[in-house]
Amino acid sequence: MYEKRHIVANLLMLIIAYLIDRIMNYLTFGSNLSQLVNNLSILLLVIPILMIIFSVVITLMFSSIIVSFLYYVTAIAYALVISNNVDFNLILSTFLNLLGYYALATIVIGVILGISRRSFPDEILLNISRINVNISKNKIIYGGLFIMVSFLVFYEVLSNLFLFIGSMASFVLTLLVSNDLVFPLIALSWFSFPFLFTQLAIYSVKEKGIELGYIEGVLAPSLVNRISNTKYGWRKFSNLKFHLNFDESKNYNIVILGTSGSGKSSLAKSIIEKFSDISYLVFDLHGEYEIESGERIDVSKNSLNPLSLNGASPRQRALEVAYMLRSIFRLGNLQTIDIFNIIMDTYAEKGIDENDESSWNSTPPTFRDVLLMIERRKKLVENSQDLSRLSSIEPYIQFLSNQILSGNSLDMKKIFEGSIILDFSKVATDELKYVLIETILRDFRNYLYRRGISRLWKFLVIDEAPFILGKETGLEIVERLFAEVRKFGVGMILISQLTENIENIFQNSSYIFIFNVIEPKELDYLSRALGGSDRDKYEAIYQAIRSLERGHVVTISGDSRDILLVKLNSLK
Length: 572
Prior knowledge:
The protein has helices at 4-29, 33-62, 65-82, 88-117, 123-127, 137-157, 161-176, 193-200, 223-226, 264-274, 314-329, 333-349, 367-380, 384-400, 412-417, 430-451, 466-469, 472-484, 503-507, 520-531, 535-546; strands spanning 210-221, 232-244, 254-257, 279-284, 295-298, 420-423, 458-462, 490-496, 511-514, 552-556, 563-568. It is of the alpha/beta class and 572 residues long. The chain crosses the membrane at residues 7-28, 40-62, 69-86, 98-120, 140-169, 181-203.
């Protein structure tokens, strides 16, 4: 419980108190004048030097001028205990005379380090906002008992009001410190006061939500790190659990980044398994997901018609498909317009009218129907230019006239409402995979609009995200989902090795987990995204992400937005 650095600081102050006691004894009981002058001259030279050294050491240990001055008060308390036969006023006046040395040294070291690195980060002041006042009846009862003990020992027995005041000050601090185990320290008066004070600003998190691992450190300014020419370092912790908690988050979205094999998919599986009462839909491009609670569907053995409306209007779906094909095959504007017009004509041929919503439930056309429409148009055109335009889009429609896109054997209601793993690993081509994935994403968005506002009930997991985000329409639909799905009770989990095209997705995510990354371009983006304009923080994040061990992530906590180093339970 008592940190090692506090033990060191107490020992340093005890040395000062002992030396002051020597001075008091020489002044009070000295007999040999020459020996007295000689001893005093040595002590008066040694004590200021030691005080200067000790003030600097304590300031560096705690990255706080405030704590350093509190330990000076502790030195007074030690002197009073050691020199209980010396007048209190004499001791106090001696310490006040020496205070200038101590204060000057402490402030000078702060100014030097502050100027060299542009600011002076006092850790206590930086973290004082973390104080969570929680005064309970038990705290008052426990504290009251120890105050009574302190009163009897310090006031009644020792007749030392200064030490009793220290106990009262410690009692006030313990009411603010959440751990009941610190209450016995009230009886130690000023000797425990600096320790209790640092506990006010100790890093703490709300233990709510699902546990994912342990926080090993938080990135924070530190005077100690400035010696090695950096302003930030990891303030270490032990046994501080990290929880995924959406209670106060702006949304339920998560981004997971890292190199291949670093553990991204394992983390995603761990998250969705821990939310036992929430269903999920996983887009599994490589057949890697095995989740006991989920049903795996081999998409290659099923069919899905992208021209099915599923709540969209004919015009909306024709536009979506036309732009999707432009993204996949890099088509020109005229080709995109021609595809849109032909699809609209095909809908009309099937009796589906944009202005008659009752017709939208009719059997939709397929790409084979669109291909037949092109062939009929080719026979009717009167010039080579129109024929050439139709011929230029025909191969793409021909390619999509695939059996897997010609029907609707996938039960979309089951997919959207159950816990499903969609396995795309056996789908023949990347183009077909993409068409299927984007179609499902757009149908899911329309399904949410029909379902309405809800609490959290669903996670949508998109693995190998660059496969989707690399296409213009894929990026558009994913960004819309990230921005909109919270009100519908849906959380998005996006997994990627690359940071390209994720700027808006970053901004709409409550949690970002970063595994080891070694590519300089990716490191640069992530360090800037997390560190902002602070170059020192950028460097610290850059080095941390590059050297992460397996099972460790750098993350931003959902409430305070602190940058944390976390060891995950799922990758032990």
